[in-house]
Amino acid sequence: MLFNREKPVDDQTLDRLAERAADLMAGAKRIVVFTGAGVSTESGIPDFRSPGGIWDRFDPDDFTYQKFISEAETRRKQWQLLWKDRLTETVQPNPAHHAIAELHRLHKLDCVITQNVDSLHLTAGVPEDKVFELHGSMRRVTCLQCGRQYPMAEIKKRLHAGEDVPDCEACHGILKPDIVLFGEMLPDRVLAEATSRAEKCDLFVVVGSSLVVYPAALLPGYAVDSGARLIIINLSETPMDGRANIIIRAKAGEAMTRIIQKLAEKMSG
Ligand code: NAD
After folding, report:
1. Which terminal Cβ of the chain has fewer Cβ within 10 Å, N or C?
2. pTM higher than 0.85 for the full model?
3. pLDDT tens by residue, 71-127
4. CATH class label, 1-45+93-135+187-269
């Protein structure tokens, strides 16, 4: 599914909406920020569903867990076409990640729940115990046979030295990035904790997600059903728009920076 982007709001509207969002944040006791690929596009990482995104260039069928474990050719395609040059160490957090980290420094952040595998919230300075990576992380690679773990940087070196499909040095088992592929279960503990945080928060802030990938996309509904307010910052529509208190159609970096600046002013004034 490809969503058309709507035109971002003008500066005056953004300012007005940012003011309202900052008011909600100032009054909230437990804020959960929920992020998707859209929070990282300004770091140069394409999302999935925007035009020019990953689904414009790759077939989703090549990303199922079942095909990954059963077909050497699928593993080769993923390593060579996708993982080898993706999320290099030069990718850096953008103003949206920094603004979310600032929310933590302002003692306003309960946690970040992210669908992203780029770990940029951690790089931006949100502590590990406050980041729930629902779909895993590209920083690590695990052997499916013996469980040995490798840093992704080490495996990328091997790929760039000419290996086609890397395998485990210890047992020659299949190596897989620590990310959740289609058809694979989400890590139970992470999902359970994220669900509980969503249900307990009083403000749930979606940043850069189309909210169509399940079960992650259920979380905003759990929060609202439990009484939380909902802010959505996203360039295109989402299935939860009708339940949001504030919708901001703007770039995540610009919107979050402005909201957090206003929040900081309110807290210091
Ligand atoms: P998605 O591609 O379905 O949706 C991204 C949304 O962000 C779109 O609605 C788009 O309009 C919006 N968007 C794009 N750039 C934006 C910006 N600068 N500011 C505000 N909004 C912006 O992504 P999703 O909802 O996260 O779900 C798809 C899956 O993509 C997830 O499972 C995730 O694991 C995976 N993914 C992760 C990365 C990453 O780690 N950076 C990148 C691509 C995909």
Report:
1. C
2. yes
3. 999 999 889 888 888 766 679 999 999 999 999 999 999 999 999 999 999 999 999
4. alpha beta
- Could you give the residue range(s) of every CATH 3.30.1600.10 domain in the chain? 46-86+138-179
Distance 96 CA to ligand 1 centre (A): 13
Q: Where are the alpha helices (DSSP H) in the chain?
A: 11-27, 65-70, 72-77, 95-105, 120-124, 152-160, 188-200, 219-225, 252-268
Average pLDDT for 39-47: 92
Query: Hey, what CATH class is 46-86+138-179 in?
Result: alpha beta
How far apart are the CA of 228 and the centre of ligand 1, in A? 23
| Gap from CA of 185 to ligand 1 centroid (Å) | 20
Q: For ligand 1, which residues put their CB under 6 angstroms from it?
A: 3, 5, 36-38, 40-42, 45, 47-50, 53-54, 115-118, 135, 208-210, 212-213, 234-236, 251-252
pLDDT in tens, 173-224: 999 999 999 889 999 999 999 999 999 999 999 999 999 989 999 999 999 9
